[in-house]
């Protein structure tokens, strides 16, 4: 049994000698080797140069950013035979002993496992004896916040009036848990998370030193995953190296560690944007079938939408984004509004919280992906009200000169997925009500939001209307110029689906286009066409402009017969059953009704 243990120890030791983890191998031995903590380093070095040496230091900051390393460098700097010096020699017995961790005058205590008052009382007794071989007797207490209250009290007595040769260096990840009485007696240094690019540079260096080939995006991923901790980065680097056969690639990392690559997420999002929801869902299935956990999937989607949101806000720094920007195609970057990205991020964050209690986490993920498909059509109530208000203003001021389709639908926010196919920026079209006229000549026909069967007709209307100057608005005569430029239509029945075309042709006269918009029914029998308007006012206005309407209808369908105008007001009262005051006011503005 004993032999066995010795053998195991021997083997372990032998292996340990041969292989040193990167974090240990790369542990900085000088202040200048400490990356990412320039402010702390320069302050400490200056203090040592000026011989202003405090009796207690408190190093705080996240794990793996160099607190303990700095404590050891400081110990060497103070006890080096050439010191105190900001640049310890590293070769004198004191330096070597501290590096090996066997200096009798530098005592490292782990606060997490020596929490009791007795452990500290021992220090209290020991400090009475001066250092044996060095200038200072240095106590490095790691995770000092773990000490018990009584231990802190015992410690306080010592650091209040320490002998001149005693120096305490405390390190903690949670400085707020260290009593103020202790903190106020320490020189405090806050260590910061290390910049992603700095970590990546260190990884590149480590790979070169080990003669290992490593792809840029793979090291970027390791640096990102380590979230600012150098030690985590080196540990992950070692782990990746263990299965990488001297060439670290991102695809290997994805395979072995079960990750969703940025390319895979981008592909899924592109499928969704092009309306191929089935392909997106299949891709997700494939990911899960390949052993990627649902949690990991959600995490990666969350990271993706966070990055898109930050990019939307104009952040380009990859260290903040946590993503290499050139990996995301421009079409994906521009596909969503800030609001929609916020909604997506919120959805995935919530999903991550919820899956613990879910009947089936896989279903939850699929539901989320399915919901993502309609993300480009999401608009908040605030946004819709704002748009409607501005629309009303524009309409009243005569800026708006055309209406399309049944505009008063409340369900603006969600449209049919198949309409989106191959449209690069569907978001804007929904976010803006169809009637809104932008002052500059828009390249995209705004009518695309309308019902599919209307699109064909509407596109016949000249696009130049968009940039129409305001003075045309109340000149009905100018409308008659239009038919001359149109090709001669083929005679066919005029139907309700032609109404948007008619509305389009009346765009220069807002009142008449409103009137045309209120056509509720179209009935054609032989040579007689009956148009039923929703209100008496519209009927009367149409009657007054019957000649113009007739010529435009002829232009559209070739119909030349008799036109009769009717009113449907008696049997269909306005705004029935709608309680929303905003919709009602919009409806009354358009002299229309709200359809449910
Ligand atoms: Zn030395």
Report on this model:
The relative contact order is 0.06. The strands form three sheets. This protein has a five-stranded parallel beta sheet, with helices on one face. It has four domains: 18-190, P-loop containing nucleotide triphosphate hydrolases (Rossmann fold, 3-Layer(aba) Sandwich); 196-257, Helicase, Ruva Protein, domain 3 (Orthogonal Bundle), CATH 1.10.8; 262-377, Zinc Finger, Delta Prime, domain 3 (Up-down Bundle); 381-440 and 490-589, GMP Synthetase, Chain A, domain 3. The chain is elongated. Strand 3 (137-142), helix 7 (149-160) and strand 4 form a beta-alpha-beta unit. Helix 26 crosses helix 27 (536-544). By secondary structure, the chain is α/β, with parallel strands linked by helices. The chain is built from 29 helices and ten strands. Zinc ion is lined by residues 80-82, 88-89, 92, 94-95.
Task: Quickly describe the structure.
The chain has 596 residues and is an alpha/beta fold. It is built from 29 helices and 10 strands.
Main sheet summary: 5 strands, parallel
Strand order of the largest sheet: 2-3-4-1-5
Please state roughly what percent of the residues sit in beta strands, choosing from under 5%, 5-15%, 15-25%, 25-35%, 35-45% or over 45%: 5-15%
- Structural shape: elongated
Count of spatially separate domains: 4
**Low-confidence region ranges:** 1-16, 404-486, 572-577
| Residues in helix, % | 40-55%
- Our count of helices gives 29
Mean pLDDT, rounded to whole units? 78
The CATH topology assignment of the largest domain is: Rossmann fold
Q: Tell me, what is the CATH class of the largest domain?
A: Alpha Beta
CATH architecture of the largest domain: 3-Layer(aba) Sandwich
């Amino acid at each position: 049994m004993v032999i066995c243990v010795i053998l195991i120890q021997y083997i372990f030791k032998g292996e340990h000698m041969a292989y040193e983890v990167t974090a240990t191998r790369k542990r900085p031995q000088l202040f200048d080797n400490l990356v990412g903590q320039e402010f702390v380093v320069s302050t400490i070095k200056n203090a040592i140069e000026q011989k202003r040496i405090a009796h207690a230091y408190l190093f705080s900051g996240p794990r793996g950013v160099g607190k303990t390393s700095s404590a050891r460098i400081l110990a060497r700097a103070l006890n080096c035979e050439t010191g105190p010096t900001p640049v310890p020699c590293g070769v004198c017995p004191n330096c070597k002993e501290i590096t090996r961790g066997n200096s009798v005058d530098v005592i490292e205590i782990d606060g997490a496992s020596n929490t009791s008052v007795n452990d500290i009382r021992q220090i209290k007794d020991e400090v009475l004896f001066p250092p044996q071989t060095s200038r200072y007797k240095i106590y490095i207490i790691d995770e000092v916040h773990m000490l018990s209250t009584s231990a802190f009290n015992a410690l306080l007595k010592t650091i209040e009036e320490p002998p001149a040769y005693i120096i305490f260096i405390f390190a903690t990840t949670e400085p707020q848990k260290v009593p103020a009485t202790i903190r106020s007696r320490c020189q405090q240094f806050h260590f910061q998370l290390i910049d992603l690019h700095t970590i990546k540079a260190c990884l590149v260096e480590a790979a070169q030193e080990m003669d290992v080939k490593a792809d840029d995006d793979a090291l970027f991923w390791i640096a990102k995953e380590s979230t600012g901790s150098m030690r985590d980065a080196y540990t992950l680097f070692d782990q990746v190296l263990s299965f990488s056969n001297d060439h670290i690639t991102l695809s290997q990392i994805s395979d072995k560690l079960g990750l969703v690559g940025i390319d895979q997420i981008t592909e899924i999002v592109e499928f969704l944007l092009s309306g191929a929801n089935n392909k997106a869902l299949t891709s997700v299935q494939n990911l899960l079938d390949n052993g990627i956990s649902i949690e990991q999937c959600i995490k990666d989607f969350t990271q993706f939408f966070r990055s898109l949101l930050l990019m939307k806000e104009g952040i380009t720094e990859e260290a903040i984004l946590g993503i290499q920007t050139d990996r995301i195609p421009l079409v994906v970057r521009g596909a969503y509004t800030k609001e929609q990205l916020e909604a997506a991020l919120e959805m995935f964050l919530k999903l991550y919280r919820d899956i613990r209690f879910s009947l089936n986490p896989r279903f939850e993920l699929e539901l989320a992906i399915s919901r993502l498909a309609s993300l480009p059509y999401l608009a908040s109530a605030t946004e819709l009200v704002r748009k409607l208000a501005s629309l009303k203003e524009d309409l009243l001021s005569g800026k708006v000169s055309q209406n399309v389709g049944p505009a008063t639908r409340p369900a603006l926010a969600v449209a049919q997925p198949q309409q989106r196919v191959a449209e690069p920026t569907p978001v804007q079209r929904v976010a803006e009500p169809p009637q809104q006229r932008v002052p500059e000549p828009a390249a995209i026909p705004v009518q695309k939001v309308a019902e599919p069967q209307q699109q064909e007709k509407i596109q016949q209307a000249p696009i130049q209307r968009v940039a129409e100057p305001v003075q045309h608005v109340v000149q009905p005569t100018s409308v008659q110029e239009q038919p001359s430029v149109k090709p001669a239509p083929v005679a066919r029945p005029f139907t309700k689906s032609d109404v948007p075309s008619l509305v389009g042709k009346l765009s220069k006269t807002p009142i008449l286009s409103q009137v045309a918009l209120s056509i509720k029914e179209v009935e054609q029998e032989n040579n007689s066409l009956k148009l039923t308007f929703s209100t008496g006012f519209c009927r009367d206005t149409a009657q007054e402009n019957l000649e113009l309407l007739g010529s435009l209808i002829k232009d559209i369908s070739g119909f030349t017969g008799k036109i009769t105008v009717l009113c449907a007001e008696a049997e269909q009262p306005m705004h029935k059953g709608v309680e929303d005051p905003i919709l009602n006011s919009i409806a009354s503005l358009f002299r229309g009704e709200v359809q449910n």
